[in-house]
Amino acid sequence: MLAHVGGILLGWIAPLIVWLMYKDRDEFVRRHAVHALNFQILLFISMMVSALLSIILIGLILLPIVWILGLVFSIMAGIAANKGEEYKYPMNVSFVK
């Protein structure tokens, strides 16, 4: 749960720390940390692209949408992890495996 919800405040750093600490100890936590890390990296890239697109004003619309989606999906993933359920982000790319 910390990997998902920690990403709200610390971005990709929180899931990276959880993944590095638990990758050899607990398969369930490792899987969730990897999913959270991949999502936070994708979210970071999306935020940077939106910030660049704010030059032509479309980024001003995209930036809050990306932020809200990241917040909602991270909370949903944290709740699922707390219940012991698997969670897959609706849009995710496997940067880390």
Detailed description of the structure:
The protein has 97 residues and is mostly helical. The protein has one domain. Helix content is 73%, strand content 0%. It is built from 4 helices and no strands. Helix 1 runs antiparallel to helix 4. The longest helix is centred in the middle third of the chain and has 27 residues. It holds the Pfam family MamF_MmsF. Keywords: Membrane, Transmembrane, Transmembrane helix. It is found in: Membrane. It is a multi-pass membrane protein. This is DUF4870 domain-containing protein.
Keywords:
single chain, 4 helices, 73% helix, elongated
Chain-averaged pLDDT: 85
Radius of gyration: 14 Å
Helical content band: over 70%
Count helical runs: 4
Shape: elongated
Number of domains: 1
Structural class: mainly alpha
* Biggest sheet record: none
Strand share of the residues? under 5%
| Helix and strand run | HHHH
Low-confidence stretches: none
**Total count of strands:** 0
Distance between the termini: 19 Å
Topology, pairings included?
Blueprint: H1 2-10, H2 13-22, H3 27-53, H4 58-82
Subcellular location: Membrane
Protein name: DUF4870 domain-containing protein
Membrane topology: Multi-pass membrane protein
Quick summary:
With 97 residues, the protein is mainly alpha-helical. It contains four helices and no strands.
